[in-house]
Specification:
This protein is of the alpha/beta class. 43% of the residues lie in helices and 15% in strands. It has 16 helices and 13 strands.
């Protein structure tokens, strides 16, 4: 088969979908010798000259999500390439293609549908308008977790027989390591609790701040709280609470950090805390476990799938439950060491090689005997 991958996330962002697309493309090209690929991007990648890249720039240069490209020039290019299958990793499309071209859409989560109050108005509105049609027209839907698969089926019951899930992988840079100069660079003193993620309502950082207050009241310790991640949306409430926090001198908010610095931050944390209300997968939890960090994680959505038996869980609506887990790890060295060991075992179950090979199997299972008019014309 000739397979096209719409790899726009590689040129538009540096968040979770970027890393999925990056590793999906690299590993499909590495492990799939049977099918032929074309990679559509917004700009050429000088670091990957051997990739079969087709560049299609935005028609309106100053618009990040160019509707002309999405709905007109991109479908025209795909028709010209005559693929048998199109893969859309960003779960928004593909659009305006003939039925003879099969569609595989990757769905990361349905939080704009299930919890619209956590998202900007335009984002939730676009998802509500377009997602039902995307799910209906897709020939195969790949979710990142069993929980997201069930969310998709709940949203679109007739998609059950064409929806599968594959857990994401971890990058090789994530493993136990010393502090190096990273902690010194960011003026971090051990011991510390760590949170990593975009600052937005869904990440539930207000509960983390409240739990840290309770922890300080109970422990009377000098333990710090390190919050790292770029600003997302609706951040005012978080920054107001941070500004007026009774223990703000012990809270270090360092913003977005280089990915190469994260292993040191994870590895040397007393515990990694992830209080998110909803996740389609939860890559930071996997990254933290791969570095041997004890994890304290919300008991919601896909997070128990990722954390397994290697994490302590709490109700994200109850700061007191989170505080109790923080106190437990701080006081009990045996539990802390046990969680570090189990975290490494749990993290070893996830890899991008495994993701890609399962992905290839899903393609072969669904489309292996498919020969389109395009193939016969090639």
């Amino acid at each position: 088969m000739h397979i096209v991958i719409i790899a726009d996330p590689l040129d538009k962002q540096k968040a979770g979908i970027y890393y999925l697309t990056k590793h999906l493309v690299a590993n499909l090209l590495k492990y799939d010798s049977k099918n032929r690929y074309s990679i559509i991007r917004l700009k050429p990648d000088l670091n990957s000259k051997d990739q079969p890249t087709v560049v299609l720039k935005n028609s309106i240069p100053f618009i990040h999500n160019d509707p002309v490209r999405t709905f007109l020039t991109l479908p025209l290019l795909i028709r010209k390439l005559k693929p048998d299958l199109v893969i859309e990793p960003a779960h928004f499309g593909p659009f305006n293609l003939p039925k003879r071209i099969k569609r595989l859409t990757i769905i990361h989560d349905l939080s704009p549908i299930k919890s619209p109050n956590y998202h900007p108005f335009l984002s939730q509105k676009l998802q509500r308008i377009f997602l039902p049609g995307i799910l209906k027209k897709a020939d195969l839907i790949i979710a990142n977790s069993k929980n997201t698969k069930e969310d998709i089926i709940q949203c679109k019951p007739d998609s059950r027989n064409k929806t599968s899930y594959i857990h994401l992988g971890k990058e090789e840079i994530f493993g136990p390591t010393g502090a190096g100069n990273v902690l010194k660079k960011h003026k971090i003193q051990s011991p510390y609790f760590l949170n990593v993620g975009t600052i937005e309502p869904r990440k539930n950082l207000n509960t983390l701040l409240e739990a840290f207050t309770l922890f300080k009241q109970k422990s009377k310790s000098n333990i710090k709280l390190v919050i790292t991640g770029g600003n997302g949306w609706r951040t005012k409430s978080f920054y107001n609470r941070l500004l007026n926090h009774p223990n703000k001198k012990d809270i270090i908010q360092i913003g977005y950090v280089k990915r190469s610095e994260l292993p040191a931050l994870y590895s040397n944390a007393l515990a990694f805390i992830y209080p998110s209300y909803y996740e389609g997968f939860g890559l930071p939890v996997l990254e933290a476990m791969a570095c041997g960090a004890p994890c304290i994680v919300s008991n919601t959505s896909s997070l128990p799938e990722v954390g397994g038996d290697a994490s302590l869980y709490f109700n994200p609506k109850k700061a007191s439950e989170l505080m109790e887990k923080m106190v437990l790890i701080n006081r009990n060295k045996a539990i802390q060491n046990s969680l570090r060991e189990i975290a490494l075992i749990q993290a070893s179950k996830f890899s991008w090689e495994k993701y890609a090979k399962t992905f290839i199997h899903e393609i072969e299972h669904r489309f292996g005997n498919y020969e389109s008019q395009n193939s016969t014309q090639s």
